[in-house]
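Propose amino acids for all 205 sites.
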């Protein structure tokens, strides 16, 4: 038995995934991740589940709304495509109308080329976003605004801290007995922040 999978990824818990769930009833299974695109596919919670199904030879096809849902790093995107292509599993990008493998089982070279180009675009978009953030901080400093985050000697409300999207995700994973290093990798949080979440869980229990 082999199954068709719809893979969905949103960066935060608050984001709506409806757009990506086009005709979701046409698929045997939907796998969803709530994490940053900087985390490689098979390091995500849903991605780990997907890889297990692939390795068990249970997957007939994978459909994804668009390429940047795979990641924001070209190397990660191409690694995922290579892994699935080697196992003759077609990956279909719904919004872009691309499929990595032809109906006869051969690799689709045109799709591979377009995916590479769009992967570079996704990578550039992330770099531009980070540059704009840095510029914003630099401008604030030039205007005399100190950008240091929370003021020294002040404490953030624990519940407010834990309600932040990434921290909330870390809390869920820690409660499922994930190790701190695994949580940091999946959520993109600093290990110190993960430790803080872990300590707060203990104090609130």
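Proposal:
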């Amino acid at each position: 038995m082999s199954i068709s999978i719809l893979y969905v990824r949103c960066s935060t818990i608050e984001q709506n995934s409806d757009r990506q769930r086009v005709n979701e009833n046409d698929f045997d299974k939907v796998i969803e991740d709530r994490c940053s695109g900087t985390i490689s596919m098979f390091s995500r919670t849903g991605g780990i589940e997907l890889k297990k199904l692939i390795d068990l030879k249970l997957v007939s096809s994978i459909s994804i709304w668009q390429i940047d849902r795979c990641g924001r790093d070209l190397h990660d995107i191409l690694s995922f495509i290579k892994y699935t292509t080697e196992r003759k599993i077609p990956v279909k990008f719904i919004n872009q109308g691309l499929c990595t493998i032809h109906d006869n089982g051969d690799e689709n070279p045109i799709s591979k080329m377009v995916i590479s180009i769009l992967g570079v675009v996704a990578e550039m978009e992330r770099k531009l976003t980070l540059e704009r953030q840095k510029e914003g901080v630099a401008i604030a400093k030039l205007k005399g605004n100190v950008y240091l985050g929370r003021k020294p000697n002040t404490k953030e409300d624990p519940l407010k801290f834990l309600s932040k999207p990434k921290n909330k995700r870390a809390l869920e994973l820690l409660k499922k007995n994930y190790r701190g290093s695994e949580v940091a990798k999946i959520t993109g949080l600093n290990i110190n922040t993960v430790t803080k979440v872990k300590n707060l869980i203990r104090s609130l229990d």
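Residues 158-204 form one domain. The radius of gyration is 20 Å.
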